[in-house]
Each structure stands twice: as structure tokens, then as C-alpha cells.
Design a protein that fits this description.
The protein is α+β, with helices and mostly antiparallel strands. It is about 25% helix and about 15% strand. The protein has two helices and two strands, in the order βααβ.
């Protein structure tokens, strides 16, 4: 078995999630490339209304730092 922490309550439990959030740094160019590739932006409320998020659980997430690009 790998070194990941197994669920303690049984075989069919939800996956164990880490509480720590990873930090990711993006530039404006990174964001524009992702939008050009088909990524979408919406608020949490819009995502819940569209069915992408469950309002009763916290989704996996990262903290995003926006890096300023000096020309």
C-alpha cells in the first residue's frame, strides 16, 4: 500500500482531504492562456446554481497569488 493515509472508517468513505491549502502563483498571462483554452470564471454562488459545487461541502481549493508582470 502507498504511504497515503487511508480512511479510518471503512472502505466506502469519502477521500481523506488535507486541510492545508497549496499556494499557487499565476501571472496575468497564465490566466489569459487558461481562459483562451476554455476556462471559465464565475462566483461561488454562480457555480452552486450551475451545479458545479455542492453548497454543503468545501471543495478542494488552492490559494492563488497574482504575480505582477513588469514590462
Amino acid at each position: 500500500m502507498n504511504d497515503a493515509t487511508p480512511n479510518a472508517h471503512g472502505l466506502f468513505d469519502a477521500p481523506v482531504r488535507t486541510i492545508e491549502k497549496e499556494r499557487v502563483t499565476l501571472t496575468q498571462a497564465d490566466i489569459e492562456r487558461q481562459l483562451d483554452a476554455g476556462a471559465i470564471l464565475m462566483s461561488r454562488e454562480e457555480a452552486i446554481a450551475a451545479g458545479f459545487l455542492n453548497p454543503l461541502e468545501a471543495p478542494d481549493a488552492v490559494l492563488v497569488d497574482i504575480a505582477r508582470e513588469d514590462a
